[in-house]
Amino acid sequence: MDISNRVDLPKTLELDQKKRIQPYIGLALIITIAIFAAFKSNVDQRLPLFLITGLALGYILTRSRYGFAGGFKRIYVTGEGSLSKALLVMFALSMVFAAGIQWSATMMGIDAPGLSSVKFLNISILLGGFIFGIGMMLAGGCASGTLSDLGEGAGRAMIALTTFVLGSIPGLMAQDALNNSAIGQIGMKLYLPDVIGYVGAVVVSVLVLVGLYLIVRKYENFRKKEGYFEETVYEDQELPIPKQKPSKLFSYATFHKIFVQRWSFMTGGILLAIMFAFILVSTGHSWGVTGPLTTWGVAFFQLFGVQFSSPVFADAVAAANGGILNDPGSLRNIGIILGAAIAFLLAGQLAFDRHFKLKDVIYYLIGGFLMGFGARLAGGCNIGALFSGIANFSLSGWGFFLTLGLGGFFALKVFAGKVNIIPPDRHQQ
Asked: How far is CA 275 from CA 35, 50, 106, 350, 360, in A?
């Protein structure tokens, strides 16, 4: 019976029909992206590589609800540290991969990949980390999380991303001014393998991570005893379907297992560590997110005739003039957004989320700006400065980690209950 023209069609049935068609839209999107990537390969061989890498990253982030901001927010709000522990395991695995890759390059007499992530630890990184930590809590997500949340349909992510991009411009200017000042010259640049070798660097770094892991477990137990602990709760559609006999390969149960059932935080962390190694080998550099956002900001302001003559904007101007879709880093960020969208489309879960008030919009705008400003001041975000810094044995990564955590917990303490941040069981970033 054809019910498509019935005016009394139940809303639940309408919703089910929308969910059923989403996987087909996701498949069409994948085919479209593949055609676009093939076309772009004729322009620059790096473009399809970066785009596909972004798709994988976005898919992993969304499928596992994985995020860096959530690693701080979740344990503070609920006392549950599964995401925090997954982050620490991801760092440890990435270090092992990086050590092997960099040691091999050194033995072959070539430049070790990833050393561009080893930064000079100074006031810019420390202050930028603190500002970024506040911003990611107000905006409800970090840099990678904002991109993947946007792909999932989170309206707040679009709001935050707008000011994130705009905040990158003054942030880069502030970094240049501060780094060239007297106080900006105070600090040090340390690549741990230069001091204690690759084995020693891995051992020392992993021991620090093990110590943090034990602290998280102890804090979890403390919260349980105090009665302020909440277990992770998956949404009904994300839970495994009970096994049925006989099981069929071509069935909804199989589809659900492959495309819908939620991955654990630990699964997401392990897969991201593998992606980290892949990016390191395939590009010679570590993963970064916020550099291309500066290019987007420059391109936006150029539309209104703004000229960026300062040398600090040279790279961003060149990339903007070459076209956003011809910039490898920008394509990887776009890929993260699309990868997250594909994950939700294939699962039939994509929906625009606009559950926020005007007051929340103001917080999201401020949070996005602080993230953009802080990331450029520090020369990186939770990915470029934190993840890639720590995984590449840079002291700067640990410095950023410390102040980002302080900024994040400060924001949670001061602004708790004042901003509608998506509950941690839905959007972890």
From this structure: 23, 12, 22, 25, 34
